[in-house]
Inverse folding.
């Protein structure tokens, strides 16, 4: 039982790290697009 809890904890941590990375990528892309849109308006 203890092993399963440890494995589950590792899987959850891994999932959280992957999710954070994806959110960061999306945020950076959105900032780039907003910047490009602002520059295009000038």
């Amino acid at each position: 039982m203890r092993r399963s809890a440890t494995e589950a904890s590792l899987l959850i941590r891994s999932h959280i790290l992957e999710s954070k990375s994806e959110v960061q990528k999306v945020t950076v892309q959105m900032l780039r697009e907003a910047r490009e849109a602002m520059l295009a308006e000038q």
